Amino acid sequence: MADEEINGDTDEIQHDKDKTQKKTAKHDSGVADLEKVTDYAEEKEISSQDISGALSLIGDRRNKEAAERLEKENELQKVSVKKDDIELIALSLIGDRRNKEAAERLEKENELQKVSVKKDDIELIVKEMEISRILAERTLREHRGDVVAALTTLTN
């Protein structure tokens, strides 16, 4: 039995040593992790020279952009547009649009002239609808010589 007590105490002592070693190992690993963090933070610290250099770069960039804007504004102020020039440009644009519309109307008239219609159909429309010969012919041409479609359009 004495052997058991001695062995039991030895086991407890051994067990206590193991616990102490585990705690120490955990403590040491925590210290190592903390050391890594502080080393990283120390490496990432920005020196005052770096800050002043960055600020001077930003200031130089802003000054350059401001100078470019000022130069553009000065160039724009040199350019002057007279009221007469604006009116001339506006009239030119209006004239171009009117010319385009006139060209489109002329093209449509030319296409209508190409459509062949019978004189008898024109006379029928003139008598039935009591309209001018010119209007009857134009309506008939717009409907490609179809008398029924022309009459339907004129009655609606």
From TrEMBL:
<dbReference type="Pfam" id="PF19026">
    <property type="entry name" value="UBA_HYPK"/>
</dbReference>
<feature type="region of interest" description="Disordered">
    <location>
        <begin position="1"/>
        <end position="30"/>
    </location>
</feature>
<dbReference type="InterPro" id="IPR044034">
    <property type="entry name" value="NAC-like_UBA"/>
</dbReference>
<feature type="compositionally biased region" description="Acidic residues">
    <location>
        <begin position="1"/>
        <end position="11"/>
    </location>
</feature>
<dbReference type="InterPro" id="IPR038922">
    <property type="entry name" value="HYPK_UBA"/>
</dbReference>
<feature type="domain" description="Nascent polypeptide-associated complex subunit alpha-like UBA">
    <location>
        <begin position="115"/>
        <end position="155"/>
    </location>
</feature>
<dbReference type="GO" id="GO:0043066">
    <property type="term" value="P:negative regulation of apoptotic process"/>
</dbReference>
<protein>
    <submittedName>
        <fullName>Huntingtin-interacting protein K</fullName>
    </submittedName>
</protein>
<feature type="compositionally biased region" description="Basic and acidic residues">
    <location>
        <begin position="12"/>
        <end position="30"/>
    </location>
</feature>
<dbReference type="GO" id="GO:0050821">
    <property type="term" value="P:protein stabilization"/>
</dbReference>
<dbReference type="InterPro" id="IPR052617">
    <property type="entry name" value="Huntingtin-int_K"/>
</dbReference>
